[in-house]
Amino acid sequence: MTKRGAPPQFEIAFGELPGGREEREVLGVAALDRMLKQLVEGATQNVRVSGEVRGTSRATSGHIYFALKDEREDALIDCVMYRGATSRGGPRIVDGARVVVEGRVTVYAPRGRLQLVAEGVLDIGRGELLAALERLKVALAAEGLFDPAQKKPLPREPRRIAVLTSRDGAAIHDIRRVAFARGPIEILLVPTPVQGQGAGERIARALRWADRLPDIDVIVVTRGGGSLEDLAAYNDETLVRAIAAADKPIVTAIGHEIDTSLADLAADVRAATPSQAAELLVPSVEDRRSTLEHLTRRLGSSVRHRLTQHRRALELIERKLARPRDRLDSASQRLDDDLEALRRSMERALRVRRDGLADARRRLSAEDPRRVLATARGRLEALSPRLEAALHRRLEARRAELGEAAARLDALSPLAVLSRGYAIATTAGRVVRRASEVTAGDVVDVRLGEGSLRARVESSDGG
Q: d(Cα 359, Cα 23) in Å, to the nearest integer?
């Protein structure tokens, strides 16, 4: 007997087929699936599993299918979150996210597949793949590869489009179907892989080759949707740099509207789907007709406006030239008036200049240089004796002052004191004022009234 709440125990044995030595019950596949489902669900109620989200897909029913990958070991389990669980909200399930899924493990009988039914999801950060992608995105953005200012405009009516995608994929068929239905266009298919090892570098080489073709107007890089791993080629750094460095405009249509790759960020224009890319590049017949009608209306309006302007200008000219003789007579009269005014102005100017010249002559006559020079010479001769006498008196006064100052200086001079028999004694450059400043044996320099001598102290009475 099993404990209450514990899963029942089953024994699955393989015996011989009927007709052998032992008869055993033979289970159908559905019965075996039901047995496994009951066993698994009983042991995994409200289980919590952590891992990195891979291979996300959303069905039209609202269910979300994905897989959880162990980040440390090579292990994977399929998961499903039914519409009822998704409507309760929670973190968005995207490839590369690290999550904790709460739910139960079951066996999906129609396919005999073990899967985790998610009833709740907790976001716990980014997975290794998503984190590496984010680091590359930040680095390329810092270099300016995603700068909107560097985006090139699309040609209004391209004649030839190069499409880089798989030869057998749905993307090229969608582009051809939509483009050919909208108008005349040439499409050059450049077959490239859309996923797998080295796909990014191969797409980049194909893009550089197409970019060198002289008759290509725009390049489309496209593929269908897929998981983060499926779109890895379009997150390849080599391809992203090739898109950013291309001379021709680049349109990307990678995955679906919810999928955004680094190639989309580097492209000049990003389309949500391959069909939308064709719609962006190829104007429809209706669009062309509407544009032509609009331009025709604008041209007609512009022509009518210009004709009206020219007609008004012509009428104005005709009014001005209605009586040419009157205009000529009026102009001739204005010329006579101008000539008379010019004559009067020149006469006034000549009078002013003539009066100025006469005044200058009178002033020049009054200021005859010979007369001015003779007057100055007379004044100079009168002032010379007075100047000499004044200089003589000032010199005598300065000489007397100098003699008095020399006498006072001589009275205060130390040399005068020495000449009366006094002497100055110094030792080590210092004047000796008291006997206590030297001791027996010290050498002193003695300055006399005439000359000097060096003496040694025999004794000192310092007091």
A: 157
